[in-house]
Amino acid sequence: MNYRFLPVIFFCALGRIYTQSTLPDSCKIQIGTNLAGMSDWTTEMPFVDLMHHCRTWGTQNATWVSGGQNVWDSGVISSVPRDANGYPLQAPFLEPGLGLETGQRIYTVWASTKAWPAGTYTLLYDGEGELDFWGDADIISQQPGTILVNVTPGVDNIIQLRIDSSNPQNHIRNIRFLMPGTENTYLENPYYQPWLDRLAPFKALRFMDWGQTNNWGYPNSWSAYDEDSDSIRQPWSARSRMTDYTWTQNKGVPYEVMIDLCNRLHKDMWICVPHNASNEYIEQMALLVRDQLDPSLKVYVEYGNELWNWIFGQAQWLNKFGCVQQNKPWPEGIVPYIQNCLDIWTDVFEGQNDRLVRVVGVQGAWQDVSNRIVFNMRPGSVDAFSPAAYFGLSDNSDAELDALGSAATAADVSERVYADRENDAIPWLHAQQTEIGQALGLPMIYYEGGQHITPHPFGDEPSYAQALLDLQRDPVMYDLYDSWFDTLRAIHSGDEPALFMHFSFVADRSARYGSWGMLESVTQNTDEIPAPKYRAILDNMYAGCSEASSGIAETAPAPLSVFPNPVGETLFIRADDVSEIRLFSASGLLLFTLPHVGAIPVGQLPAGMYFITAKTGSGVLKTARFIRF
Length: 629
Description:
Blueprint: H1 9-13, E1 29-34, E2 58-61, E3 104-110, E4 119-126, E5 129-135, E6 137-143, E7 146-151, E8 159-166, E9 173-178, H2 193-199, E10 204-206, H3 255-265, E11 268-273, H4 279-292, E12 299-303, H5 313-324, H6 335-348, E13 356-361, H7 367-374, E14 384-386, E15 389-392, H8 395-404, H9 410-440, E16 449-452, H10 465-471, H11 475-491, E17 498-502, H12 532-542, E18 558-559, E19 561-563, E20 570-574, E21 578-585, E22 590-594, E23 599-601, E24 608-616, E25 621-628
Helix pairs in contact: 3-4, 4-6, 7-9, 9-10, 9-11, 11-12
């Protein structure tokens, strides 16, 4: 991207240029986001090819058996021969000795369609056989290799795609299920444009969930440490591939896609290395990022994710092999694994170390564990340490809300969140900054953060569920976020802004499992369904940073007056003696130029943040930020 045409407002907001060592308060935090994990129920919708987030294959009776069980999933997919990309080599499948009622067809599903765009989808495939749909998809027409499908989202809220038959000599493969109007462009632009547009304002992208970092390579946490020795490490050849039939499997989205996305959007990259990766895997992963990521972008590298969190297989794996088998205390026994990973990346990036940020994740609420990890790393081998910056409910607050039950309100929840934040989250982060950041001179950044307002124990349906759901759309959530960013700025010390990676980007609400998304769906109409987290994040992303010229390489531009803001169809500008109005996307792309002020039609623009610049007759640059909802 050519930055010559970017308004000066971007320099502080994107952390590019600073002339003094002391940052203005408004520039102390930069905001990125974690991407939601790939799933068949996602409302984030990153790809126009929906096969990328279909469920892994299942098996079921190809024909109804009278008096039979006819179960939804007969569970024999592991016995079905498949090609290197995961496509079944034959259907129907019948293997003597498996106790099957009849031959088995192969199927996949999408368990939620409410975020899908309605219209005519195109399914493309290679090979010979028969495919069929059930649920919110109806076949319009078909010919060999192509099926046109009408999708009406949210009716049954599920779509099943079945392989009823497949020729073993020319099996069905390379299935692509494409959003309306993308059949001729999906190779050139594989991403859903509304998703790209709403990602545009963020500083960096963290791919922990995209890479299926937790329990990587295994279906669940308890099978992730079944081996007898940690010598069984995954080779580079075992990684997720571009040609895999789905990316919801337990190795995630290919690294090539992560890199491509960062390059397209010009975003820094935060990547997590699988805990059980071999040295060869780690080295090849680092080489791929070094050679393919835009060299003007930074890569934040982290070994695993939440290595102290016992619900994840990586924590159990490291404890078993690094501590128990080595007769070392926990957590000290996990440090050699972190050190080894970061050292390999350091070697690969030799001579380009300014591109690399080596991160050690710590437990924000467990200072002793954090200290015993970071202080045992070799001095000079770490560039930043990283707790999460969450706020939520204590056990006592959860009990009080449970006592209120269905009578609890969003205000009842927020009142307790504010109190618990003062008593817990804020002191914890102050301690991390003091005991590690100041003691070692290491920057403190945040691998995740935001609201963590969930019931206790996590996963139970609380009696005050509706209050939790209501809070996500209540204006008080904006205030919770806005004041939280003020807190993080107050905690910050150092000459560079701290990176805050919100968790997460888009996800539906759930009282039981948490409402993690700043948006509920990527196409959410926030005029109809409020998104206070998203608005607070956008407002704090730039937070008047451009007004503090002492921290910017050039004099800050004067403001323009624009209204309404947020805007629907038409934006109006109030200014004297200005000309050459330029409108930019949040990523700095010049969209169009107007010769004079007045009404600007913006109804055709996707939802997101935009910037306007204008010059006065004396050459003074004026700017404004507005949000299109």
